[in-house]
Specification:
single chain; alpha/beta; seven-stranded mixed sheet; two-stranded antiparallel ribbon; 8 helices; 22% strand; globular; binds 5-O-phosphono-beta-D-ribofuranosylamine
Amino acid sequence: MEQLAQIKKFMQNNKKRSIVVLISGNGSNLQAIIDKIKTGALNAEIKAVISNKIGAFGLERAKKAGILTEVFNFKKFQKNKINEKETTRKQYCAALAKIVKKYNPDLVVLAGWMLILTNEFLHEFPMRVINLHPALLPAFPGTEGIKQAIDYGAKITGVTVHFVPDEGVDTGPIILQEAVRIEEDDTLESLEVKIHAIEHKLLPEAVRLFLENKLKMDGRKIRFNAN
Ligand code: GRF
């Protein structure tokens, strides 16, 4: 009997868990996840990559890795609607949730996804959506985290991976963070290179921690579960 329980536990621990990745652009962070899966360090399957941008390079990366892709463009969706933009955005997010649900993912990863998701999407995947942000939150939220840090004259910035439980922009519970120093001769481009290098490490690691059930909620804090 005990042996049976052990086998069951082994099977559960070794069950490949699935993710859907949402992108809007280059997809270098998607690539980092693909590569980590290839090395065997991440026991996961990417069920689909969905882009809101037609022609996003990340779609090519996904296809090359044999992953299913879909494009769901907001402007195209908006074209057939007569509602005001906010209502249409909610409808778009509800429709996007339906698309993602088809794949029944354990986790939804926003890897450079540049469209704010409404609760019509987020409430379908409670505490199962994570996002990557190129700054040390709560500093410099929003779309231009790297530029904001430079313009502000910050000496340190970094990368954050966090949950997206609701519509608050970059406000969800923090999973991982890593700092990077802004040197005097850093430009937007040179800092981007440093930030990306950290992102490519942190995002796959956060995915691994989530899929291995290593993350535990404590109020709004995320603690790491050793088991
Ligand atoms: C990353 O810097 C991410 O932090 C930001 O968008 C960028 C996406 O890069 N939200 P990529 O498409 O993964 O190369």
